């Protein structure tokens, strides 16, 4: 199963240590933590849920914690969908 695709016009920006998702078409700005920004970046391609979990586990140095990461990815992507930042059609 692949992650849903990011909505057109939404980009990730970093300013110092702060991360933002900018909806360039709707004009909204969402401040997110680094992990959520990385999850959103994974939604910009054809990344599988398993691939996203593995990528984040390596990046976070959290190998062995894949189940917790999977739950975080699913929860975060659901929030992105509710906010209109990702396509709503694919449950993860």
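Sequence proposed for the structure above (92 residues):
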């Amino acid at each position: 199963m692949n992650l849903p695709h990011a909505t057109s016009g939404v980009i990730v920006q970093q300013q110092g240590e702060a991360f933002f998702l900018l909806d360039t078409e709707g004009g909204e700005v969402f401040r997110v933590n680094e992990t959520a920004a990385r999850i959103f970046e994974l939604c910009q391609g054809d990344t599988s849920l398993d691939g996203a979990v593995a990528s984040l586990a390596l990046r976070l140095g959290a190998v062995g914690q894949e189940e917790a990461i999977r739950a975080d990815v699913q929860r975060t992507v659901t929030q992105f969908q509710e906010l209109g930042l990702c396509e709503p059609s694919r449950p993860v």
